[in-house]
UniProtKB/TrEMBL annotation:
Residues 1-60 are annotated as: Disordered. It comes from the Archaea. It comes from Marine Group I thaumarchaeote. This is Histone.
């Protein structure tokens, strides 16, 4: 096996100077929050009508 050549160390690239930070834009005052509308009570669920099995059987 041929002797491996030591990888040449690459010179570090010159670091770029950080771009100047922009000043934060003045924050807008939050709009006054509206009072939540009163929640409506859920309507009572209707019970499923019993399936008419006898009628089906007659039809066959």
């Amino acid at each position: 096996m041929a002797p491996k050549r030591k990888a040449a160390k690459r010179k570090a690239a010159p670091k770029r100077k950080a771009a100047p930070k922009r000043k934060a834009a003045p924050k807008r005052k939050a709009a006054p929050k509206r009072k939540a509308a009163p929640k409506r009570k859920a309507a009572p669920k209707r019970k499923a009508a019993p399936k008419r099995k006898a009628a089906k059987r007659k039809r066959q």
